[in-house]
Amino acid sequence: MNEEDRGGIPGDLALPILPGSQWYDAEAGPLVRPYAVTGGRTEPGPNGVQFDLIALITFDDSAPDVSRDPLLGPEHRALLMLCRSETQSVAELSADSDLPVGVVRVLLGDLLEAGCVRVSRPVPPALLPDERILREVINGLRAL
């Protein structure tokens, strides 16, 4: 292989170009495509749960030990570690794990199915009490 084939990099500095090396980035390391992480799935599982960005994910303390589960990959374990310390939203998990939101949703579906996490949703604004009513209650309490 001549210097031109290596992109102008001298032979002693260039990495050899091997079959399949287009999946390797010298600075970042091996690249794993999102569809490989999720096994080609795009939905979070058969249970039909929808993980919106603000859904809160909590580690389930009564979860079975999945440390040796061959179906859970390193990405699953990373999400579990993030959830173990504190409740986090799907968006936070995506940012902290450096995984796309779609991938995180699929992986969370696996973890929910395995009984490792619990999902809760913030109260929708339409179900919150009216601000006027809250002010009246506060004023009534102050009058006591």
Walkthrough of the structure:
The protein is α+β, with helices and mostly antiparallel strands and 144 residues long. 35% of the residues lie in helices and 10% in strands. The protein has 5 helices and 5 strands. The chain has helices spanning 34-37, 74-85, 90-97, 101-113, 131-143, and strands at 24-25, 29-30, 56-59, 88-89, 117-120. The protein has a 3-stranded antiparallel beta sheet. Strands 1-2 form a two-stranded antiparallel ribbon. A hairpin with a 3-residue loop joins strand 1 (24-25) and strand 2 (29-30). Helix 2 (74-85) crosses helix 4 and helix 3 crosses helix 4 (101-113). The longest helix is centred in the last third of the chain and has 13 residues, at 101-113. The radius of gyration is 24 Å and the shape is elongated. Mean pLDDT is 75; it is low at 1-23.
List keywords for this structure.
144 residues, alpha+beta, three-stranded antiparallel sheet, elongated
